[in-house]
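User: I'm putting together a small comparison set for a docking exercise, and I want a reference complex before I start. The sequence is below, and the ligand is glutamine. Could you produce the 3D structure with the ligand included, as structure tokens?
Assistant: Of course. I'll restate your input first, then give the structure tokens for the complex.
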Amino acid sequence: METPNRRITRLKTTSPKRETIPDSNTFRHRPITKETTNFLKFKSPPPIRHQPLEFLSSIYTKETNKKTMEFALGVATHFPSCSKPQIINSPHVRFLSLKCHSISLSDNSSTGLAERPWKVADARLVLEDGSIWRAKSFGASGTQVGEVVFNTSLTGYQEILTDPSYAGQFVLMTNPHIGNTGVNFDDEESRQCFLAGLVIRSLSISTSNWRCTQTLGDYLAERNIMGIYDVDTRAITRRLRQDGSLIGVLSTDVSKTDEELINASRTWDIVGVDLISGVSCKAPYEWIDKTNSEWDFNFNGRNEETFRVVAYDFGIKQNILRRLASYGCKIEVVPSTWPASETLKMKPDGVLFSNGPGDPSAVPYAVETVKEIIGKVPVFGICMGHQLLGQALGGKTFKMKFGHHGGNHPVRNLRNGSVEISAQNHNYAVDPESLPEGAEVTHVNLNDGSCAGLAFSQLKLMSLQYHPEASPGPHDSDPVFGEFMQLMKQEKQKA
Ligand SMILES: NC(=O)CC[C@H](N)C(=O)O
């Protein structure tokens, strides 16, 4: 929470001229290493006299490491002689109780500020460009390495946290206020959080939502995921836009020097690593759940017919499965290493290649599987699945400068000319120039012109680089599931 004597940590860098921020996301610079200097500024507390929301008392429960705080809505006044504010006798005064984040008071000694009753900076995010960002930790503690990417979604942090495509990455939310709706079990996109950590500006002190079952901090701590707040996310985002995605190390470990952490960030890389095998299921299973009727949408154009679909789990988001089930599919989910021959033996009406984390050129075994399946049954690729299809056709993928992560990316559907606002999460893209004749670019990202969708009619193949299932995000692209049904229907009618 904000405190009167809040210590403001700013980072000053002697970085090169940063006059322009290039818009193009389709090439990658290596970051420029620069020495950085940290300095601290102290701000004196502003005088508080009257304020509408007044903090009354705080009860710290040692066993649960939690605080319960009481607030009054109305007008309260501070009198110098009173330790507690006096509530003006008003019919408008209301009392309410807010759940607050657990704040560890025991680990402040390392900073020399053990006597302070509020949380002080106890974590560092160091980037491979040598910059050091002091922050406050929540969730798990420890030391973690990963690639830092920024996500521009305004809502949906829980779906983002459980999207397996973020394995190996720190997600920095550009929306400054995170945690206000807590978490609930219905919004999970996978069985666990695979991301390296969460970086946010401000952690909401209260959780208020009718579906909320837990605070964000408790949720992350239970899943052993690190989070930091009170960090200048705008400055880091500008740096990532300028220099490209950077590897970072997040640490609450005071025994590690800045140099050690910087070295760790420079000796790890996400490129060339198979991250799919760590997130995929290990055995096939049947998926049954549809999108909950309360949340279901886009009933137009649904087939009554049922299609049998094999879904390759490269890190599949559950909403892809829910949407397919809502469109009338019976789905068998199979692991990333499931042989193509076994899939074809199952005689599916169609095969879905899912989203998944990391470098698509680091999983040649998956490309081989895709190659063996295309042309034999209708296929639909989403994100990683789209990149694998691109490679299976003989095309190449490349790493973008800082990728696309967010729920507000405009895409033009070249087949009907419409613009869809889409949910995206990828750092790699297919180079359309590398694709063979017959491959059609069906969608283009309007921010940078990159390839956002492919089709190859002869091979009954379609794919999107982004997330039509959204979750979180707009539903503009949902009809593409209907197009996949059409593709399967046409093929069934031929048989
Ligand atoms: N959402 C995804 O499937 C991500 C694809 C791939 N890992 C990328 O970053 O480009």
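Residues 1-23, 27-90, 93-113 have pLDDT under 50 and may be disordered. The pocket of glutamine is lined by residues 165, 355-358, 360, 383-384, 425-428 (CB under 6 Å).
User: Thanks, that's exactly what I needed.
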